[in-house]
Structure to design on (702 residues):
């Protein structure tokens, strides 16, 4: 069934690819056909004296810890060290409208027909078409070729809302937590689910930062990946934290979050015992965090991402401070992050996506 | 691949017959349906006797059965597509699988026939997860699980009481959409089952669904008939209404609704443009129904499907019924349905 499909715009001057790393970026070789037109922002974690080798022909800027400290001064305290959460520094220094972030153990996957998947192109498609958070479409993304809204879908809701986030998935090593990894060390995700869908308003989800794209102008200030890693009691909850924050804010501001395609091939399973140590506190804290986010209410006069985020940080302090002192520090870091964001992005347009 | 064993004594397959000759339909479904009991309800407007091939275990219900049980005042409730609800009413089994008679078995991505019974029952027998979205979809499917960040306290899920399947070829689009895109056919087999999150409404299609009759039977009800309701899905909205009611009940009682697999293949039938010329009513009505259901609140005293439906009927009469005449009748139909339901139950 042929349909006239308009080609997806490259957006090469409007999108930055942010990659956190502690090792050489040979994985980029596989992505070259898809990534080469774009500017990369590499955030080097760990030892700043190490030299990160980037394959020839890529246009990039690289920031190590010394750069982060230099650029942010005392505010650099909000950027995690020895954790991939440091990637959010890349979001802050970018000057582009869109961000795509990917882990350095993620490779090009193949679709069921054997064709290489251009993950970036799919993310762009997801971001450039509306989301439908107010009513569930049983045929998933109605804007995809070959699909539409089903019978019963109210016409007044068919315009959708702006898409702020596109959350991709992973074949091969699935994004399981440590306990699940320990119980199912051999499980691989081999199921290619050919769908993109909007996560409904009022519903939270676990956002994975391995294969993620977002509209920086619509939601960037809320994409803070928290305090993780060195000196912190927790790890592997950076993207989760950001995901709960952005969903509450997107729901409040009428923005959409999509999940599903594209798939990347996740090649490396991290050590489950190391992971368990990092996640341990999170597994318990999560039981308090979820009800917090589920009942989080933002006042009507919060009409920008920054004001929503600052309000959220107040609520974190007020309600989660008693769970652990970590959340007091995190709430402060959230404020520091916004201050740093506003310093680095002084003329950022005040937008709520409406 | 399910680890769920299906007891055929727990399943009824309900088919509303709009064609008198069901031979080819039944033959197509024989590999999947032959070991189950079928309840075939004949469209009361159909004059001819049904032709059903040998080798099936079935009961047929016709207009006279409906008139006898429902009485002349309520028989109209079971006309047209709503005749299938009569099948739900008379069933004595736990699970109902319901499909339209213009559907054939679909083929999955491996070319195998989709066994809708196994998939629907598997969906109903494994928990649903409405409180938090799992990005790898149904965590109970083989080869999947809950992802990192999914709270452990929510991993036991809730009982799934409704399984909504999908359609290849002629998807369940409305008449305006299908008229605008006459060539649009659904060829995308999405290999996923997922839970529709709590407080999220969806358009439930009556073409291919299954439910736990013991848990939510009273909520799968015939109530909303368009003035010019016809014999094509484009000319109905009764299932959409029913879905809004069921979802409200499920959200209130913390029960689950799944959507996705299994697929059926829906055959070409009718003309979207002809249906469109007939009536826009359903499309217009949705604009009122959705805000109503989005703001609907049920009381803590409503702890069964029946009591929830009673409250919804009262709310409809008070709210929507005032502005739309067809909706005033809906509330009455809902109450009448519950009465008949109670009566039939009491005879068991």
């Amino acid at each position: 069934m042929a349909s006239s499909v308009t080609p997806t715009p490259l957006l090469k001057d409007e999108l930055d690819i942010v990659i956190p790393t502690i090792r050489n970026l040979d994985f980029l070789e596989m992505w070259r056909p898809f990534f080469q037109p774009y500017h990369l922002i590499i955030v080097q974690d760990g030892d700043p004296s190490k030299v990160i080798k980037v394959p020839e022909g890529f246009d990039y800027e690289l920031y190590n810890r010394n750069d982060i400290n230099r650029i942010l001064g005392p505010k650099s305290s909000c950027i995690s060290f020895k954790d991939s959460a440091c990637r959010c520094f890349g979001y802050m220094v970018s000057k582009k409208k869109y961000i795509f972030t990917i882990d350095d153990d993620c490779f090009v996957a193949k679709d069921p027909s054997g064709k290489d998947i251009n993950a970036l192109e799919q993310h762009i498609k997801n971001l450039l078409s509306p989301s439908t958070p107010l009513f569930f479409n049983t045929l998933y993304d109605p804007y995809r070729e070959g699909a539409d809204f089903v019978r019963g879908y109210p016409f007044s809701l068919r315009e959708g809302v702006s898409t702020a986030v596109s959350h991709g998935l992973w074949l091969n090593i699935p994004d399981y937590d440590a306990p699940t990894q320990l119980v199912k060390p051999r499980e691989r995700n081999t199921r290619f689910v050919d769908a993109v869908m909007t996560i409904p308003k009022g519903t939270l989800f676990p956002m994975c930062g391995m294969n993620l794209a977002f509209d920086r102008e619509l939601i960037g200030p809320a994409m803070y990946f928290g305090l993780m890693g060195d000196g912190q009691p927790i790890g592997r909850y950076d993207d989760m934290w950001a995901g709960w924050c952005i969903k509450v804010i997107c729901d409040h501001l009428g923005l959409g979050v999509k999940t599903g395609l594209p798939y990347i091939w996740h090649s490396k399973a991290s050590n489950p015992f190391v992971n368990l140590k990092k996640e341990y506190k999170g597994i318990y804290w999560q039981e308090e965090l979820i009800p917090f986010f589920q009942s989080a209410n933002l006042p009507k006069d919060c009409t920008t991402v920054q004001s929503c985020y600052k309000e959220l940080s107040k609520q974190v302090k007020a309600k989660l401070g008693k769970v652990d002192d970590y959340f007091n520090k995190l709430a402060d870091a959230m404020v520091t992050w916004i201050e740093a964001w506003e310093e680095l992005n002084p003329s950022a347009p005040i937008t709520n996506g409406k | 691949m399910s680890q769920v064993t299906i007891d055929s004594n727990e399943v009824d397959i309900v088919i509303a017959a709009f064609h008198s000759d069901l031979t080819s339909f039944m033959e197509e479904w024989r590999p999947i349906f032959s070991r189950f009991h079928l309840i075939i309800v004949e469209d009361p407007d159909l004059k001819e006797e049904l032709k059903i091939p040998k080798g099936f275990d079935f009961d047929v219900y016709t207009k006279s059965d409906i008139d006898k049980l429902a009485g002349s005042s309520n028989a109209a409730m079971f006309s047209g597509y709503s005749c299938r609800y009569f099948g739900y009413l008379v069933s004595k089994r736990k699970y109902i699988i319901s499909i339209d008679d213009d559907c054939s078995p679909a083929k999955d991505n491996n070319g195998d026939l989709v066994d809708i019974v196994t998939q629907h029952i598997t969906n109903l027998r494994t928990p649903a997860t409405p409180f938090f979205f799992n990005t790898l979809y149904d965590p109970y499917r083989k080869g999947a699980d809950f992802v990192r960040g999914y709270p452990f306290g929510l991993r036991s899920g809730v009982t799934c009481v409704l399984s909504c399947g999908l359609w290849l070829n002629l998807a369940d689009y409305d008449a305006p959409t299908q008229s605008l895109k006459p060539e649009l056919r659904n060829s995308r087999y999405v290999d996923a089952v997922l839970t529709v999150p709590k407080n999220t409404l969806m358009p439930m299609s009556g073409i291919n669904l299954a439910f736990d009759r013991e848990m939510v039977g009273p909520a799968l009800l015939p109530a909303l008939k368009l003035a010019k309701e016809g014999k094509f899905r484009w000319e109905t909205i009764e299932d959409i209404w029913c879905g809004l009611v069921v979802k409200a009940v499920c959200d209130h009682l913390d029960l689950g609704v799944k959507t996705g697999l299994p697929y059926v293949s829906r055959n070409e039938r009718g003309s979207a443009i002809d249906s469109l010329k007939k009536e826009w009513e359903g499309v217009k009505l949705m604009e009122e129904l959705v805000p109503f259901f989005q703001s609907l609140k049920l009381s803590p005293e409503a702890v069964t499907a029946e009591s929830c439906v009673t409250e919804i009927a009262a709310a409809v009469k008070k709210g929507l019924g005032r502005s739309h005449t067809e909706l005033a009748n809906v509330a009455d139909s809902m109450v009448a349905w519950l009465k008949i339901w109670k009566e039939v139950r009491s005879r068991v």
In short: DSSP finds twelve helices and nine strands in chain B. The two ends of chain B are 36 Å apart (CA to CA).
